[in-house]
Amino acid sequence: MKVEFAPLNIPLARRLQTVAVLQWVLYFILLGQMSIAITVMLIIHNYWFLYIPYLTWLYFDWHTPEQGGRRSSWIKNWTLWKHFKDYFPIHLIKTQDLDPSHNYIFGFHPHGILAVGAFGNFSTNYSDFKELFPGFTSYLHVLPLWFWCPVFREYVMSIGLVSVSKKSVSYVVSKEGGGNISVIVLGGAKESLDAHPGKSTLFIRQRKGFVKIALTHGASLVPVFSFGENELFKQVDNPEGSWIRTVQDKLQKIMGFALPLFHARGVFQYNFGLMPYRKAIHTVVGRPIPVRQILHPTEEQIEELHQTYMEELTKLFEEHKGKYGIPEHETLVLK
Residue 140: is it exposed, middle or buried by C-beta count within 10 angstroms (0-12/13-18/19+)? Predict the structure, then answer.
């Protein structure tokens, strides 16, 4: 295979975009583990004047990711995120106005490998979110284990990420006055194993916890489909029943997160690496589904609303797939 190298005369703007995405990929793949390793080394070598104050702080601050987090406008406004958005580029599309006196749960689909569209649109201040949804604050919910990593958790919270626990989502959508949006990548880690280019497979049929929270707090549900999310990386073929998929499923159940074997392009060549491809992402926010508050919803009520959500999600996909490069014969697969 002939290696295709990046040309030397690439404009500065594109180089800055590459640097922005590279640091993001490396940060979220490596630095969580590194922060744990550094903390362990400090304890082993007894640098108590460093780790004792921080671990004390951690003890008292442990529940902050479930209480709205601790975002930093300064970090969310870093120019770095503008270059990150422009690399793909990432677009946010609104189909209907939302009432800022209400709270909402956005169900984001698909997960893809790294949920790039969710981060770019709902965590940084360089998307069109504030212009399209004035009066709203978005909270992107991620796996709680991200907040178990010392120091790394502070950075994660600073860019607006919070835990995806039931307590955390309930905290956001129960805020008085409205104007709050919980963004949940509903397919989670399991769905990333089906993130193949040209495929639209969602893991949603067993995900009903968000529906119960919506009913309990009267938060409207909004399906969101991010076209292009599955095109950013290639993944080793892992069909259901294969030995690779069996191992991945078992690891996912043990660790709580999946290990997709993915690759895309490199920094200085385009044949192989962990950098995502430059593929446009169009994140389309669908129509809200009104939800009447029921403090103790029955299984039938949860099932009914869940079915309505899947129908609206399918409609959203069908209405917009032609605009964003999905062939007419391609259908949404709900697992």
Answer: buried
